[in-house]
Please model this.
Amino acid sequence: MAGSSFGKQLVMTTWGESHGAGLGVVVDGCPAGLPISEEEIQVYLDRRKPGGRDFATPRQEADRVRILSGVFEGKTTGTPISMMIENTSQRSGDYGNLATTYRPGHADYGFDAKYGFRDYRGGGRSSGRETAGRVAAGAIAAKLLANIGVTVEAYVSAIGPVTIDPERFDPEEAAKNALCMPDAVAAAEASDYLKKLMEEQDSSGSEVTCIVRGLPAGIGEPVFDKLDAVLGHAIFSIGAVKAVQIGDGTDVVRARGSKNNDSFYMKEGAVAKKTNHAGGILGGISDGSDIVIRASFKPTPSIFREQETVTAAGEDTVLSIRGRHDPVIGPRASVVVEMMTAFAIADLYLCDRGSRI
Amino acid sequence: MAGSSFGKQLVMTTWGESHGAGLGVVVDGCPAGLPISEEEIQVYLDRRKPGGRDFATPRQEADRVRILSGVFEGKTTGTPISMMIENTSQRSGDYGNLATTYRPGHADYGFDAKYGFRDYRGGGRSSGRETAGRVAAGAIAAKLLANIGVTVEAYVSAIGPVTIDPERFDPEEAAKNALCMPDAVAAAEASDYLKKLMEEQDSSGSEVTCIVRGLPAGIGEPVFDKLDAVLGHAIFSIGAVKAVQIGDGTDVVRARGSKNNDSFYMKEGAVAKKTNHAGGILGGISDGSDIVIRASFKPTPSIFREQETVTAAGEDTVLSIRGRHDPVIGPRASVVVEMMTAFAIADLYLCDRGSRI
Amino acid sequence: MAGSSFGKQLVMTTWGESHGAGLGVVVDGCPAGLPISEEEIQVYLDRRKPGGRDFATPRQEADRVRILSGVFEGKTTGTPISMMIENTSQRSGDYGNLATTYRPGHADYGFDAKYGFRDYRGGGRSSGRETAGRVAAGAIAAKLLANIGVTVEAYVSAIGPVTIDPERFDPEEAAKNALCMPDAVAAAEASDYLKKLMEEQDSSGSEVTCIVRGLPAGIGEPVFDKLDAVLGHAIFSIGAVKAVQIGDGTDVVRARGSKNNDSFYMKEGAVAKKTNHAGGILGGISDGSDIVIRASFKPTPSIFREQETVTAAGEDTVLSIRGRHDPVIGPRASVVVEMMTAFAIADLYLCDRGSRI
Amino acid sequence: MAGSSFGKQLVMTTWGESHGAGLGVVVDGCPAGLPISEEEIQVYLDRRKPGGRDFATPRQEADRVRILSGVFEGKTTGTPISMMIENTSQRSGDYGNLATTYRPGHADYGFDAKYGFRDYRGGGRSSGRETAGRVAAGAIAAKLLANIGVTVEAYVSAIGPVTIDPERFDPEEAAKNALCMPDAVAAAEASDYLKKLMEEQDSSGSEVTCIVRGLPAGIGEPVFDKLDAVLGHAIFSIGAVKAVQIGDGTDVVRARGSKNNDSFYMKEGAVAKKTNHAGGILGGISDGSDIVIRASFKPTPSIFREQETVTAAGEDTVLSIRGRHDPVIGPRASVVVEMMTAFAIADLYLCDRGSRI
Model:
């Protein structure tokens, strides 16, 4: 398939560019009878909305989601749920030399090599705005999971050199500060760091952590559609992600088996694990523990410094990017990680349990 | 789908368990007219064969691949290529308490939770032997890529605390030593480290690096089937992988945009990049540079030390694993990483260019 | 997948119900650079629009298609093309006892058995209006095919006992009369027949014939995705179709091999066939001749006569359907047959030739 | 995908050519715990085996199926079931001019147009022998369906001008005569007809009817994956099928709604229908009645008469086919229709109910 769809039993298909009529998503395969409203979905969209927080771009978009089909009398009908977010603030705009110059760190050159030309307005299809549809789709998956007692939660765990301190971990704090960090001290430090970078016309990398709680053992397929493989696909499909880790992640390289193996034991009549180095997945199948995923985001490639690059005509040139750009990607992307995770897990759950849950 | 297939235009379907009649793979969608022989495929299978090297299990399996269909007069016909590797050394064996006890770090518990029972002989379907079929399929993909000037190469870049030194990097060395490390000094150090661990009845984690050279710009789909997303799926589908990194990987968290962005410039009439922090992928599409992937493998979970665990009947117990087990996964898995990478890239190439290359 | 998508390389996903906000479709996988406009698509939609012809329902819908994404400066960009048709005439309506009574010949009972409840307004998702999205998607496929010299044309070949006469065949006539029959005499006879049926509060079956010209030999896959298998899937997915025939269709049962085999011969340097009993497909692959498909449509199930049926509560009852209903399905469905055929063939063409045509 | 796979939750992938090492199939997605044996599968394979009956080719093949994976201690494990049938009687043979001459009514020309060359031995991949794998896969689906009370049965309903008489219908008779006709008188007449044709070096068309009993209402997806659309795909994917009919099939063209609509009524507390013109499917969803499908097979294209055709080099020529060929396809294909029907229905059932039945 052509790559704008994700999932097997629960499938989302996104469409839309940054500066076209709008963005949207069609969710096919959602079981019938799930109560869902535009308001519930909007809560997630507001988390990725720019303009509401200190370090996000000042672009003021309403980003109001509208359900166009598949919901009748407040409940899903089992037929495709189409959702749309209109692009309200699209300017007929001056895109300067973006049509003919390749921005470093962006997909411009690849698009031209692939398609011969591209919609250069605001990054077109490769804009971060494409994720609005994913978030709307993920909100339905999250509701589905909530109904079976599964929760998914993502937050920013590092920005540049600033990492959250497990001892100060406060989940409610993540919803309070502009950087979505569950540690007020770290958030303040990261804030200072970002201000400094902005003065230097630079940007920072970041890390998002996502935790799935309550997933029963047995979800995921043993070979190519391992739970971690599908999650890896889902998370790497978010722009700017350069690493995905499950459980102890890259630390396993230096680990020993005797430490890395999580011992099983019986706890209140159920199988439990004494540790969770595996991040809740063994052999591609959930083991009943929390699923722990980390995504490493590269620094925002759109920086205001002058950069060396080339034109579509094949000439060396120098580019100065203008406009509205966040100095860090993680804070707005954390809800996208959360929603892609929710969607991937709901899909594998339905593959296992069928469409009548 | 049920998860034993991988790919869209070029599709492999693997089958087989560790101790059944054999293992195999069906490759569908390979263009017609590609010259291929059992001997060419066997070269790759021999790289993952146990018994040939110091730190690999002494099990002596022939692992001879047989082409059963899809090749006529030495060339692919465009129809499915079925390949089989018979299990020759399967013992009717004593599996002790493996049928009823969950090995820590393994999928046993997940299988029982998912299917109600499992083929416990040698790990059944979750055995590393399942990858034999993948390697055979990847060999065909590698031949396809070679025909268009693309090469794929994987090696072990770290074992426990021992990391290869770029200054000593020697690609031919990787084929010479038992640990597949392209650095003789590091290989010797890692060898000492593993010997010590084996005495302690323990195992080590490892890292495999894979490099794709010669891939033109424009391969990969911009949204869900980004080149990195499909590679992430492919690599995470290999057992024991806990992290996948593209280019600078987790280091991007601490990076700044001004350093992380790779500048474009014209080189002999073609677009080139001055650096390759991106690992050859921008916005999910190849940019013409080398693709650089790293996979972190956890330590072999089968260790000889006594481990705490539970039985299928829900009782705490203690398990002592016997048998043949490598103390590190990377050396034998490196060819699997290479072959999954080759297959994923060949598939995306065919999606872009059609089935008549 | 959940069944609202069709195609492999060229994929359409439809959404929407008869009486919701609107209907739409997302087309993914269309090659970049194809010139397309809303006006070109509208031509096809107008052919299935009710209200414009004698025997169609008087419902006055604008059915204006709007392209929401994937087209930039008049050309496709290679990214998903989202199209929407708003439901303008939806009445808040009185649906009488349709929520609780199963209409004979309709999917009402099946929906309740499957989903537990249903959007009963105007048939919901199973309404013929769902095909509006398919027609819009097919229009893009038709443009793609036109660019490579392939044309697709469908017309009504029979209504009840009235069949078109090959001697009077006039392709332009089909566009002139209300019944889409390429034979003015047959159209007049069928018109009289339908008037009589309407007086009797009854409806008629019909047959649509579709012809594809200019398709090169070699399209279609030899086993499960035979050209005829994919066309069969496509045409049977249109509501009310009860039979699909390729070439001589059911007549082959009484045929002999010596007559049914089409002899090959050389014609102006190219392979040609003396007859076309096969309808252009041999072994699932196009043979360069015209593809000939026929679809048998059952009589419109919504008739005004009193009918015996049951309620959702499990009681026998009598139902009288009111509202707007055509007495025959073929005339408005012919463009749907044409568009599904165009889409299926364009998809298989892209599977064979890649996404860069 | 490349077209050698069928199904979504329950997927079969066939491989193999007429004269290679063998034929096979991998079935992925079968729920765990289903008891199955090679003997049960062999029963179905024996029904399509040549040599056992008067009008079938005298080729003596054992066609013994071997289960290579996915079954442990007599039950399916949930992992892929690989099955193989070795080609025992492959002669190194003299294929005469078949490598360079296109047989009328066969796929030879299409294969060359598509792939550039082909395995011409015995028809290669387009041989009827490819269906052996389908039959083995269908046998598993049939067992799965039997477990939930669903039976599938196919027989020959017409050969040339001879049609079975409903008044003489005897299901057990179909298993007794060489032509699989459930009417001894019709079988005798058809036998005479075929003998006459064979003397004339000619062949006959035929019709196969398939009936599914016990399927609950609610199976099938409402839009593109309607139950009839998936069945149409399945049946048209069998070589030589030129028409597929559901219920009243082509007769609906002349029907009236008042007759064609099946009235619902309550029967012993359950919804039932007074007639079954619909063949058990309304709006693409099963309605609880018997599913009735008919497939029209063209006459065997391999006839011994001299036929006009062309060579691959583009010259007119005359071809005389030799070897072993049945004069009619239906009798041996009836089990293939039955098995493809069973597989398609089991797949849609699992899509609806999940993988844990």
